[in-house]
Design brief:
By secondary structure, this protein is of the alpha/beta class. Helices cover about 25% and strands about 25% of the residues.
Length: about 300
């Protein structure tokens, strides 16, 4: 099939490679422009850009598609049968959505209509969902509101982080998009009454509120690994929390209080044993190693 692929982050790369390996004629890849990244803020190309170069596929990196007639002309000139979109990052205007013969289809990392929007993986873990999955859907002008072609679920494991679930869903998405293009499917409208939205995350979302239950904070830590991370403060210093074990056993200390000298912290309900943490300028480390050089005594308050 003659197609255009549109994606940017690591999540999109397995799908691009799978479509290429399946023999599809990928006439162009659209991805976000190179941007500063990392501590040195050096300009880096998107993972999809790097993968497309290896595969020898032409790459386009427009900064916008809305009100961009020149890019509409480029896109239409490819005469694609379909465009496959996976975490591209730009809103597609009608001129793009309607250009391919069979329209645009999207690989979305949730079981739509649950968790439409920008952070479906993180939102599912944080909410305590027991499953997630991939939806292949026809695209329209709404935010993840198109008709569903096919879905595949996967359980969310008790120790899943956004990183581990991301990798599993990326693999499922790659396999599912190949199967979808290789067969016919009846498009099914989404059940609007079950729709909910996953907001765009910011760094500030990672601030831990110790008045929440231990299980809620544990889900936040796992949901925000690796980004934006979860953090608290101690004596004016920011501490990034990498991993913790929740306990539902009742404690009497105020939320945020260290109930022993082994990093067990009182929460609104239960307590949290911090097992991995990081201070500014240092690597993430196990709690035992951290405490050897940074004792946090019983009775101290976090946050």
């Amino acid at each position: 099939m003659r197609l255009i692929f549109m994606g940017s982050p690591e999540f999109s790369v397995p799908a691009l490679r799978a479509l290429h390996d399946d023999g599809h004629d990928i006439v162009a890849v659209y991805t976000q422009p190179p941007r500063p990244a990392g501590r040195g803020k050096s300009v880096r190309r998107q993972p999809v850009h790097e993968a497309a170069d290896v595969l020898g596929i032409p790459v386009r990196t427009p900064t916008r598609l809305r009100n961009n007639e020149k890019e509409w002309d480029h896109f239409s000139a490819y005469h694609a049968e379909v465009a496959v979109v996976a975490a591209y990052g730009l809103i597609l205007p009608p001129e793009i959505l309607n250009a391919p013969e069979q329209g645009c289809i999207n690989i979305h990392a949730s079981l739509l209509p649950r968790w439409r929007g920008a952070s479906p993986i993180q939102s599912a873990i944080r909410a305590g969902d027991t499953e997630s999955g991939i939806t292949i859907m026809e695209m329209n002008e709404g935010l993840d509101t198109g008709d569903i072609l096919v879905q595949q679920s996967t359980p969310i494991l008790p120790d899943d982080t956004a990183s581990s679930l991301h990798d599993r869903l990326a693999t499922i998405g790659a396999e599912l998009i190949v199967k979808t293009l290789g067969s016919s499917h009846i498009a099914i409208p989404q059940a609007e009454e079950h729709a909910c939205y996953a907001p765009r995350l910011t760094r500030q979302d990672g601030l831990i509120d110790w008045s929440r239950s231990a299980s809620e904070i544990d889900r936040q830590i796992r949901a925000f690994t690796p980004w934006p991370g979860s953090f608290t403060s101690f004596q004016g210093q920011t501490l990034r929390i990498g991993r913790a074990i929740p306990s539902s056993e009742a404690v009497s200390a105020p939320p945020g209080t260290l109930i022993n000298d082994q990093l067990h912290v009182a929460c609104g309900q239960g307590s949290l044993h911090i097992t991995h943490l990081q201070k500014p300028g240092r690597a993430m480390m196990e709690a035992s190693a951290f405490l050897r050089g940074n004792p946090l005594p019983k009775g101290a308050r976090l946050g």
